[in-house]
Amino acid sequence: MRLFKLPCGLAAALLAAFLNSSHVVAGPSVNVAMKAAFPAPPYLVELLETAAGENATSYFPLLDRIADGAFANAKTDRDLYEKFLEVLKQDGHMEAPEALSTFKLALSMRSAAPRIEAHYQYYDTAVAPSLGEARDDCAEWVLLGEKQYCSASLSHVEGHVPGDLQLRSLPFDRALGAGSEAILYADITKPRFGAFHKSLAEMARKREVSYRLRYRVDQAEEREPLPVSGYGVELQLKRTDYIVIDDRDSETGTDSAAESAPTKVVLDGEEEVTDLKPLSSSELASLGLKAGSFIMQSDDPLQTLIRLTQDFPKFSASVAAHNASDAFVSEHRQRGLSVPAGMNVLWMNGVQLIERQIDPFTLVDSIRRERKLIEGVTELGLSGKEAISLLGNREVTLAKSDDEPRRFDWRDEIEGGRVIIWLNNIEKDKRYADYPKNLMSLMQRTYPGQIPPIRKDIFNLVTPVDFTKSEDLSLVVEQLQSFIKRLLPVRFGLVPLVPTKAAETRAKLVYYILENYGLASLMSYLDACRTGGQTEEEAFDKAIKNRTPKADATLLSFREVLKSEDHIRQIELAENWVERLNADTKVPPLFINGLAIPRENTWLQVMSMRMSSDIQLIQQGIFMGQIDEDTWIPALFLEGAPSRRNLYIFPEDEKSLTMLDVNKLYSEHSDLFDLVPVVEASDTSMETWATLTVVADLTSDQGLSLLASALVFQRENPGVRLDIVNNAETSAKAHQFNALLKKSISKILEDKNLDIWEDKYQYTLEMLETIFSGSIDINDDGYNAALSRFLAAAAFTPGDQLLILNGRVVGPFIDGSVFKPSDYEQLLEFEQATRILPVYRAIHALGFTDKVSGPLAAAKLTSVTALSTISDLPEGIFESAPTLRTTMFDDWNATDTMISVGDESTANIHFVALLNPASEVGQKWAPILKVLSQLDGVYMRVILNPKEKMEELPVKRFYRYVLDSAPSFDETGKVSPLGATFKGLPSEALLNLGMDVPPAWLVAAKDSVYDLDNLKLSSIKADVDAVYELEHILIEGHSRETTGSPPRGVQLLLSTERDPHFDDTIIMANIGYFQFKANPGYYNIHLKEGRSSEIFDIISVGAKGYNAVPGDEGTEVALMGFQGTTLYPRLERKPGMELEDVLEEGTSESGSDLLSRGLKFAEGILGGSKSKTKSVSDEEHAEINIFSVASGHLYERMLNIMMVSVMKNTNHTVKFWFIEQFLSPSFKEFIPHLAKEYGFKYEMVTYKWPHWLRQQKEKQREIWGYKILFLDVLFPLSLDKVIFVDADQIVRTDLIDLVNLDLEGAPYGFTPMCDSRTEMEGFRFWKQGYWKNYLRGNPYHISALYVVDLRRFRQLAAGDRLRQHYHQLSADPQSLSNLDQDLPNHMQFVIPIHSLPQEWLWCETWCSDESQAEARTIDLCNNPQTKEPKLDRARRQVPEWTAYDDEIAALDQRRRKSPAADANVVSSGEDAQNVLSGVAEEKNTKSRRFEESEAQTRTKDEL
After folding, report:
1. Which residues make beta-bridge pairs with 722?
2. How far apart are CA 934 and CA 940, in angstroms?
3. pTM of structure
4. Under a CB-based contact definition with an 8 Å cutoff, are residues 1049 and 1142 in contact?
């Protein structure tokens, strides 16, 4: 019986009955812990780094305390912790309880451990191998000037350490002082550290050296693995049609009598609530409302929420017996008008967090960032609540939500209407006579992208063109003319670009011909110019020959036209238009209704989209009565449009602008801003206030000009405060210019009663030149060092010329660019409209005006507000994170549905969670929210939002989240590791243990004797203990070429100084994604030798973010956090490689068809060749490479038998590849012994399912996905060919034949489904319905055995295509029933499948008995008719199966009895449920396709 085939209500009732069976009794507890693959650092180092993460300035003062021996008497972790907290408070590093609480949470999560491990890894992989002749036995030593010192006095050179690799600044470095680089390698827990630190710190504070401490550790010291937290553990109730237990593990059932159903819900995890009566459809329907109401009626709603959700299946029947209160239901329904019931949303200070941001490590970082943001407001006298209400104020939100692109006044009225050359006139030209004039015609329905025909001037496209360029002439003569001939209702205009004398000549001729002979003559002339072959004069004469001049024409000869004063003036006006609108950029813009569109290949599509948007705006205006027949519609688009287009003020991409936190700027760099000249504002009206910082090289003409214009601007705008930072390219004398200007600034500000701004500018510039021509002999007052710190923090470089207006960075300006006082005016107007005045209006509305003392305080507020609307995530890479803040929840009535914790008035972090208590998301969030609510300075509101009606049990798992708000210690004073414990579980239920981990973690079971995929507690006598290992943390990335497209197929290597090939991968076409499996440390990324390195160079790995910033060049990357690292590499093609495809082997041999590209691809980049000698793949791996996946002890048992059957039939070398995260610890313990016995190699591989690719929730479907979706990235790039063999197959042939089989250009070969057993015809779904129509006679292939030519697979970008197609199809949950099989079959028209001969896979269900004799492999597919158990079928069908099974069992027995055999293998220590034992049987990860008892009635088969 299939539950999902039944009516929803009945299925739900049956499932609930299963969950709440009277035979269920409580069994042993399940205990789960996790450890990292790297060891725990000394606790003192963790305390130090965690404190520095909270307050960076505390690092070196705390090191001083450590060096003084402040912690020397602490004997245990608890002693260290308590003493450290005391020092933090005493020394003022964490006076605020808010900071202390996040410090404790971060410490509890061991969040600093990866950073410390990165230090250790760097020393071992980069420093130790470089020591050469230097001493390697110094426990502490200093590197200074390429010399090694092993004593604190630095009196004796121990050795020479060549090169400057170690001197580079590393991401985990913290520096003190300025001067020569002095690097101390030491263990701060050792007594000798103190002397070294004191010596170097003293030198650093005297500015003699720049002191950096890098940790090292004695490798001989034994260190325990690091316990980790910040993850979830689930025990999923397995679907009834997957309940299968290995038959060797059967034990007698429980003797416990079933208990009667309780009348009261006792939310006690240890309580044996075992007899949970079945739920009826009506009870189930309102279960969510009842759960929410039950929580709110309890004494401690938050604790009740957690207890109920974590064991929801256990308590669901009892909760269903309670009635939801009327108050809860009515309030919930009232809120449902503004937010959907059942939705889960989390806001922090009004910003909605997306799923990727809701993990403890990210949340701690977010809280710290947000707190700094809010402190920028609270320092001005606002409370936390007031600060949050300001950031989420409607005025601010409205200004931000207006994301309409900037339009510019494209008209030439400023130039007297003499510039634009119009090619048509919609309202006057006869060709448009049949078009309707009525605006209502715009309201008619049209196809998407179609512009309704109308005889009105609505759309204006103005294109700057260089009449000497062939591509510009083609644009006019061919494209624009064709649009006009097709009667597109758009008015087209041209403006000449005149960068050369020839272009100027043509522009004059164009103006003359148009004005005197008309458009037809002009187009004839331009066509002649495009064709070429004649002089300018000949083309001119030909264009006007036999043409009738206009009545008012002034006829001139060719030479007279060129000398005409009128046309010379016209060209000047055109140049003014081009300069005004910045239309002479490298990629010139087009202006469609004032919107600037780059004239790239896609300009037509962009134009069409913009016109469609504009049509909608017009339709809306007509509907609302704002537009009538007399309205000149273009004026609507130009309302408030600036007449000048300065790309520094209005960047082409609004998202690329940079904002700085003014509060942070002035607080963290007070040493600089206390020294610079300041022109204070004199206007007391807040509306005029702004703070402008000019950062300029005052030794350059451009810098002086920038400052002179700023001073003129400030004089006209006395509400602006002006700070001047001299940023000389060579900083040695920067302090002198600063002192000169500061001394003389008052003279410059004297008013000379000059009226014209040009005169004011000239006077100011001369004054500045006079001041700086003088000399001053002054010692550096710290200006240069302060400037260097400021530049590094803001990512500027010496010599940069730029402006900062209320935090908005404008520039850096390129050499020669001018920024006039009028540009300053426009900048101020733009910033006031978008970012400044909305905040001032919000301040007035909230009554905070008296708390803003002046322009600097106002600038701090506006910059914080602007920063609060900028997402941390790059646009278009991940799920877009909302940036708008909202206070919508403040309007909700939430008396009877809300849990609140904390003090709203004093907290500076306000969380609002909309939570469905009967959902898996709610189950996960509840414990996280509880921990967050325990933090100081946090106000938490949890608004319960259950679904109104349910048709199935919403939560089918037990869940624990491993997280605590502060560290705890055991009785010996050691830090207690956190873990998950499940008690009182129903003992008859079949449970699957799963881990819910952050996106960057790769986790696998490390230690357990039990089958964690199939836990049935009634058959287990002792508690179930399982330890998982955090094996890898990911380095991920999204790569792009300089053109913006992903460099698909490019092969990358991850390396260290010691290991040049640590890992490899390829870049996917799917958003340029790649991932490396790594652990904390310092790495290098480079291109693999071959096509990748021949075609591309890496400009930067983008370690500092998506956009290029100074200092991000290079290929180094540090992994130093549990969140992993996300990179944004930028690749550039080498000269001459612009058209090369990395997937091709040189020039294309037969056209551009993807499938016809050369098969030699891999010889250069993968090390393989077709020669008779062994390939690199054969030498490095094996001649036969087999890939398989198994989950659960039964299938691992079958997997062992499959491997033995392979080895019994070949004399060639064999290597097996397994996906590690699905294998049990027992299997991993036994496989070395099996490999040794039968002489094969094996390797564990894995790949983290990318977060952007639609996930599969069921484990079985996840396994099917791994079988097909990641073939291009699972294996090393050196592997040529791999064969997938299902675990439940028996091989009877030498698989070398399949390795050598010619796939005839296809990337993989599958066996078609067998047709020879005729009585099964009704079950062959591929011959009916959807599949029959789709396949059109092509075979449907089975995925139990297939061979993959990995070189060809990668060459065809087959992985990218499969993932893209999967992502599209899986949007429909009904599609891809048999994911691993349906997907390649559905794609076979694009990615060809080579059909293997039928003999390669025999299955009794589909193949005739007669054909078994020829079978090369036998697959144990299920039979939907007989439903014979798999193990019975194996013993009956395959005689050798039992022999192999016994042989392996005997090996296992010998292994267990032999201590020597266990010497190099970690034993689990228990024998309760070993890898070879079992009870009933577990279904194959592919066999679901043969269970369709209702196959005959299928209408929509799979897709």
Report:
1. 679, 692
2. 9
3. 0.79
4. yes
